[in-house]
Amino acid sequence: MTVAVAIRDLGVGDVDALMALYEHLNAGDVPPSQEAVRAVFAHPGLRHFGLFAGDALIASCNLVVIPNLTRGGRSYGVIENVVTHADHRQQGHGRAVIRHAIEQTWAAGAYKVVLTTSRKDPAVWAFYEGCGFDSGDKRAFVIRRT
Predict the structure, then answer these.
(1) In order of start, what are the domains of the chain with their CATH numbers?
(2) Which InterPro entries match (predicted)?
(3) Nearest to 92 by CA among 135, 130, 55, 57
(4) Bridge partners for 48 per DSSP
(5) Cα–Cα distance measured from residue 108 to residue 100, given in angstroms and rounded to the nearest whole number
(6) Cα–Cα distance measured from residue 60 to residue 81, given in angstroms and rounded to the nearest whole number
(7) Residue 113 CB: number of other CB atoms within 10 A?
(8) How many whole angstroms separate alpha carbon 38 and alpha carbon 36?
């Protein structure tokens, strides 16, 4: 029996499923407050996409499209928090949700999409390159609050 797979925008009602999925991204992460959840889902330009197999959320990423004054005023997108449930990896679900986010970025008129990862595994890097990202195009620098 084949289970229907669909990608859709996530909303506040999907938070429990999303938090459970995020355990496969950052196990043991402290869950956000209800106020933080409401603020995140109310943020203009920020979207969370979920790939569902039947009723189960099995892959997700988020996308923010940022207005810009360079490049002719064209915006750019940033994809973050890419995750696929461990039981569903290597089946194309992560690639599908990323492709969906990229398509939404182009539909918003953006000229580029940026994705960063903290993963050091070359297989993860190869996965993102297989999705069309160029690891040699830009260099990312990160500073974290102590």
Answers:
(1) 5-115 (3.40.630.30)
(2) Acyl_CoA_acyltransferase (IPR016181), Bact_Acetyltransf (IPR050832), GNAT_dom (IPR000182)
(3) 130
(4) 62
(5) 12
(6) 7
(7) 20
(8) 5
- In three state form, how does the secondary structure of the chain look? CCCCEEEEECCHHHHHHHHHHHCCCCCCCCCCCHHHHHHHHHCCCEEEEEEEECCEEEEEEEEEEECCCCHHHCCEEEEEEEEECHHHCCCCHHHHHHHHHHHHHHHCCCCCEEECCCCCCHHHHHHHHHCCCCCCCCCCCCCCCC
Per-residue pLDDT tens listing for the chain (146 residues): 677 899 999 999 999 999 999 999 999 999 999 999 999 999 999 999 999 999 999 999 999 999 999 999 999 999 999 999 999 999 999 999 999 999 999 999 999 999 999 899 999 999 999 999 999 999 888 999 99
